[in-house]
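Quick illustration, no need to memorize.
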Amino acid sequence: MKTLTIPVGGMTCAACQVHVQNALEEVPGVERATVSLLTNEASVVFDPAVSPQEALVAAIVDSGYEAEVRAETDYVRPAAISIAIGLVMMAAMPFAGHANQTWNWIQLALTVFVMAGPGRQYYVKAFSGIRHGNTDMSTLITLGTGAAFAYSVAALAGFVHDVYFEAVVFILGLVLAGRAMEARARHQTADAIRKLAQLAPATAWVRRDGEWVSVPVEAVAVGDRLLVKPSERIPVDGVLESGSSPVDESMLTGEPMSVAKATGDRVSAGTLNGPGSFEFRATAIGAGTMLGQIVRMTREAQATKAPLQRLADRISAVFVPVVVSIAVLTFVAWYVWGGEAGPALEAAVAVLIIACPCAMGLAVPAAVMVATGRAAGLGVLFKGGEAMERLSHVDVAVLDKTGTLTEGRPAVTRLEGDPQWVRFVAGVEQSSEHPLAHAVVTYAGTPIPAVTGFVATPGQGAEGVVEGRHVRVGRPSWLGIESDLPIAATVDGAYALALDVDDPVKATTAEGVRRLGVRTVMLTGDRPATAQRVAAAVGVAEVHAGLLPGEKLQFIADLQKQGRVVAMIGDGVNDAPALAQADVGLAMASGSDIAAETAAVTLLRPDLLAAADAFALARATVRVMRQNLFWAFVYNAIGIPLAAFGQLNPVLASAAMALSSVSVLANSLRLRGISL
């Protein structure tokens, strides 16, 4: 059996995802097919001896989709063209009117152009779906625009009155615009995987024939001896054999403090070396490194995530065949009892026109559009309505610690001793490369005196002369001082002070946890004692510490197996797999770009109150979506019988259709001022 990943173009809803998956699974030799609407990919496990790859591509194309992903501009341009043509047609209406035959012929040509060009994909998908017994929003769009177009052509030929060409063009333009926005969000999300892979350097220093040579990282083999210079990223996983240096491992652990590495310690690809240099032996390369595993886990979590099926698609599964049946019965009944084709056709077309999915098609995107604008003002970016819908159902919020609940950078939190010596200690620390030195310098403020005779003792501390005083700062044990705090200092041999350095909790975190309104769980790579202290301070009862990225992902997967809907809130590269696995990922924009692009929601305000606002707005938005769908359906439920009994001609049916759209838009606009 072989596994093949095929890019798929043209998918717009959860129903599309199911159609492609069913088409692939019907191909002989296919054992399993998984289709992701998020990444626009199909992962197929198949026997190439039974069916070649070409058969899989043909199955996708035959089901009405494309075996390639369109560029963003392929969606934006058709939408812009359709809307522009629709605006021209609408603007000319007061001057030309429906009675002007020359203008009507021009409208016919413009409408045919839009239907055969920008809107062609919907008709291809709808007819292909009908052939396979499937219906979705493409079917509704095809029925509505097709009915309006057919009636308009009949009016142009003199059989009935009035034309509705502009309605056809506008419907296609609006749905294409929505698709362009969704495509852009999915493209940004897919960039996360590429950026993860780019963390590894392109070259590495490898010892060959007794000399250090720079080679492509792909040429490194397990067992090679490598050199890492100051401030370089580590190319592969390995074990130190000589030298020492602090290494920034925040991409793995999320912790801001660098970790001192010495002989025998393990280092990971993509992590950032500090001021020292060292040699190490490669133990894992390429996809086998920790970074490679993070890339793989992120891709798999995105590929297997199934978005919630749209309410509109569920309704359309029943709505479409019912409307078609009513329209056919209406025509037959009027023709049998009246004996004339004109009135029968007029009533049947009125049924199809009022059933046109304008309001149903706007129900979700209108709410999303208004809510997105409101969210931006709150410092929240949603990647489409899918994220809002999923977030509204969340019942467990999983929280990262560093950078999410805390500030994400070390700071002096406590001082014991005489404060007058702080500036002297900062004078020495300003020349130190130690990860905690910057916190001390920041705490001291300005001005900071100069130091002379500076000497650093690796792993212990540093010393120098400041304003004529001999100052030593470092580990208390190195200075012969008994203290539980990590940093102590002496001045002229006498004890001066001790400092506690920690990652402080954000002032808004406790209120943010309370406002989330769901069960909260902290997952962190930090020590249990530190994690418990932070959790107690902010009101999180459940804590799991010392976790690697894969363990965070597995914890979330286990919750999902229990039927829980999980949101993950984080900010680091190490959170990317968990953000992708969660039903909804929320990333702090103050963290890594990779976390922000992997997540479905980006929080521009770097605090948990922004997440609480996102939760509240999502719930309000989904309520409005459901109300919109309800009223759109009610208009059809009332209007279709009236049209069938001849109480609504196509003109009134068109007006009712427009009124339903206006009500949906008005209801959506309430989100601009709704209280959270």
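The chain has 22 helices and 24 strands.
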